[in-house]
Amino acid sequence: MSECLFCKIAAKEIPAAVVYEDDAILAFKDIFPQAPVHLLVIPKEHCAGLGDMTPRITAAVGRIPQVAVRLAEEAGVLEAGWRLLTNCGPDSGQSVFHLHFHLLGGKPLGGKLCQ
After folding, report:
1. Which end of the chain is more exposed for a tag (fewer CB within 10 A), N or C?
2. d(CA 18, CA 31)
3. How far is the C-alpha of 45 from the C-alpha of 76, rounded, in Å?
4. Is 110 left (phi over 0), alpha (psi -120 to 50) or beta?
5. Domain count, the chain
């Protein structure tokens, strides 16, 4: 997807503060963090959301929780607590239509996801 922001980040056309990368997954710091630790974890291959996954993307996404645990440990939030979530569609707050997961931590996040 030539106009997709996250595809451009994955292709190294736009710089990002990358904290993890392998053949299929990229993780980088969110530029508008909502918590002291706010990372975005994406499959490198374009996929608009969970409802659009192909078998190859499903395999990559299946590894994201394991990557998230590693990142939470490296960020120092593994024991205190952290959150991994994705938004699907505009009503959920999704603004970049490339499947991505938010890893949030570093402060009490509370029980509510919405205000």
Report:
1. C
2. 12
3. 29
4. left
5. 1
The answer to the question of residue 61 being in a domain is yes
111 within domain boundaries: no
Beta bridge partners, 105, equal: 37, 82
**Residue 40 near residue 27, CB atoms below 8 Å:** yes
Which residues form the domain of 10?
5-105
Judge contact between 60 and 43, C-beta under 8 A: yes
- What confidence tens digit (pLDDT) does each residue in 60-80 have? 999 999 999 999 999 999 999
Q: Residues with catalytic annotation?
A: 100
CA distances, 100 to each of 43, 55, 61, 94, 112 (Å): 7, 17, 9, 9, 20
Q: Can you tell me the mean pLDDT for 7-18?
A: 97
